[in-house]
Predict the 3D structure of the following.
Amino acid sequence: MSTKPPKIPDEVLENNNNSSMAQNEKEMKKLGDEMKHMKTNRELEAENLIPDPQQD
């Protein structure tokens, strides 16, 4: 029994930009909604939490 993931056709890979956070409009809207509810670094610091240093 093989545990390898299925091979994705080259033409599918060429048409996708896998370095982006969202692949289509539906994913962009979902990501935007998720980000609306995220706290800013200042809000986290006000709650004595440590913000993500990459997000400064």
